[in-house]
Amino acid sequence: MQATGSKLLLPTICKFLAIFCIIITENYVAANLNPSAIGVHRRFEYKYSFKPPYLAQKDGTVPFWEYGGNAIASAESVRVAPSLRSQKGAIWTKSQTNFDWWDVEIVFRVTGRGRIGADGLAFWYTTEKGDYNGPVFGSSDRWNGLAIIFDSFDNDNKHNNPYISAVLNDGTKQYDHANDGTTQLLSGCLRDFRNKPFPTRARIEYYNNVLTVLIHNGMTNNNDDYEMCLRADGVQLPKNGYFGISAATGGLADDHDVFHFLTTSLHAAGKVQEPPKVDNQEKLTQEYKEYQEKLEKQKQEYKKEHPNEAHKDEEEWEEFYESENQRELRQIWQGQSQIGEHLRELSRKVDEIIGRQENTLSLVSRGCATGAGQALPPAAAGSAPVQQLPGVVGVTRQDVDLLIANQNILLSTIREIRQLAGDINVRTDNIQTNQKNAPTAQIQSTGYDVQSLITEMRDGMNQVKQGISHVGQRLGMPQGSAQTAPCPTGNCVGVTLFLSVTVVQLLLVFIYNIFKNRSEAQAKKFY
Q: What is the DSSP string of 160-175?
């Protein structure tokens, strides 16, 4: 029974020990893969990173980075090498690193039409910037530092591509293209990174002389789905290096696009060197004051050396820019000028109508005198002789008096309009004077619907003109026609004509009232 119990207990203990070993191993690997788990401080370095959106500025530059060769920067990505034959390009940081340990995450795509692509893409950490059209994946050979090469073309025909390799160089070795660098690589892994449904991710970490490369194969949209590619201990990299990405194509061509390049510096707990804080506001204020003092000093020296030219320059600048008072007065002057032009046009038209009405009255008076058998009054000196109008016997004195009374009302209305226009001009002059005396006054925007008023008055005047023309035609009817078509009632002024003239007069009075009300409203706005 004891032997049987021992036999049953032994497998259980073995299983427990195996599970315990697995847990310890996983924790050890996780601690080495994730420095934050062992108390490492991480700080994002924006001067050594780029990411969308607005990756490139409007002028095509990438902040804190330089690119060249056939590389193309856009708002969403950097196309290091396009899918054309024999293309090379690279992008490098402008400044060297000021930290020893770092973690870089690269998000990229390598896509092409063919089953096989070329040549590949490379990550660089070197003491000097490489070329933009170099022989090693678009960068320089014999570099001093680290290169993580994503080689997509099989040069040695061993069918082991695409391949990811880490190659160290001290500046004296030439890269072995024939063997795809297998004779020089530190470590590597076989991973296919071409034509994936999602962007490929590579995480390169260098901490405590341990180099770790993790790969996301781009088959899922889980950004944390990384796999171990390589790990190397005792890696000695130079300090204060440059980061870079390069790519190249050959007889075959792929698009090599980089979307993210995120750099994080790693620091041991308690050894973080915080950069000195500088009050930018005080610094900028001090620089601005110094610049102002320097500018004023230069102006004074220039005025002393060139007194005439300095005086001319000041006058030219004063003439070039208008002050607020000048702008207000100019706006007032333009508005009043437009009002004056419309009033002059209105006065001219009124004078023309008055002249026509006076001629009509003289013709009517002479026609009435002829019909009553009275002698015509002599024509005024210098005026054209008026023809006698036969056939107007039917016009009575009452009709003529009514017409004259209506015309007198119209004349008085026109005089009031003129007087109102004069009052408006006086008020505008007073406003201009007040504005000159009070330059800080703000002018209220006033809209004058002068054009619509002129249109309404023009319509009314046209109706008056038509009525007067109709009366003239009736008065100027020849004798023969008067005999053939005598007035049935004995009165040549019909009801229709009389009502038409009355309606015209009422319309003019209504138009005048509208004009007067609007003018008073506009005049009130000046106050």
A: --SEEEEEEEESSPPP
